[in-house]
Amino acid sequence: MTTQRPSVRGRSTVLTCGVLGLAGFVDGMSDNWVHGAVLGGAAVAVWIDGGRPPTEQAGLLPHRLRPASVVAVIGAAAVYVAVAGAMPRYSWWLTAAVVAPGVAALVLAWRGPLRARPAPPPPGRAGVACWATLFVAAGLWELAALLLQPSLEVGSYAHPTISYLMDTVLADWPGRCLTLAAWLALGWVLLGQATSERRR
Amino acid sequence: MSAHAVTMAGYLVLAATGLGLEVASRRPDSRVPSIRVVLGRIMSTRAGRLAVMAGWAWLGLHFFAL
């Protein structure tokens, strides 16, 4: 009987890298090379990390922020939202304004969780399956709407994608500001969900 | 029922299901984990953190960037 030498990179690393890399490749081939570069960069980072030994990581921030820091962060975010929201969609200015926090979040994600907190115990398979089914169903529903459009580039009222529905919201400054604020808030909440346990 | 209404109903059902799962996770004896627990497990590795935040960054790029 022979025993296989365990792979240096775990299956989850290879899977994550593959999904990010494929998504980046498809986006890049669709002439969205900025999107492709960000996703491809994340895939490379995951691949590099997969070859390194696991390390325990402390939180980047103290458990409680000072009120002055909170006010400063909220104020900076408000200024960012107001300025970036005034830029036209799909312009180089707005691209730079969105890439900057996106890359900053990826750098923070690389460095560790914002706050040291232990990972929750592994949830049961049935419960995870519920959430996985929901996200896969949502993806398929969106994909079906996309494929039922007259073409991939032309939206359809009969089969609206989320992007098509958002076009109306993002046409004006208030809608762009609200969406940017929601996007930033979501990013902050997601960064806050990271836990300290390091396993692969 | 028009195709538009069916598509929109699908989105609403998906959103309601997500809300229902989150509410169900709050029960003391629930077998459904909250989204916070699921994300906490996914984001306990660097690869998981990078994947989740890359998805978030892509969302912003998709709606706003070139």
Describe the overall structure.
The complex is a heterodimer of chains A (200) and B (66). With 200 residues, chain A is an all-alpha fold. Chain A folds into two domains: 9-51; 67-116 and 124-200, no CATH class. In chain A, helix 3 packs antiparallel against helix 7. Chain A contains seven helices and no strands. Chain B is an all-alpha fold and 66 residues long. Chain B has two domains: 1-32; 34-66, no CATH class. In chain B, 76% of the residues lie in helices and 0% in strands. Chain B has helices at 3-25, 35-42, 46-64. The longest helix of chain B has 23 residues, at 3-25. Chain B is flat. The interface between A and B is large, with 79 and 46 residues.
Features:
A: 200 residues, 2 domains, 64% helix, globular, B: 66 residues, 0% strand, flat
Topology:
The complex is a heterodimer of chains A (200) and B (66).
Chain A: H1 11-29, H2 33-50, H3 67-85, H4 92-111, H5 125-147, H6 162-169, H7 173-192
Chain B: H1 3-25, H2 35-42, H3 46-64
Number of domains of chain A: 2
Mean pLDDT rating of chain A: 87
Kindly provide the radius of gyration of chain B, computed on alpha-carbon positions and rounded to a whole number of angstroms.
Answer: 16 Å
Count of separate DSSP helical elements of chain A: 7
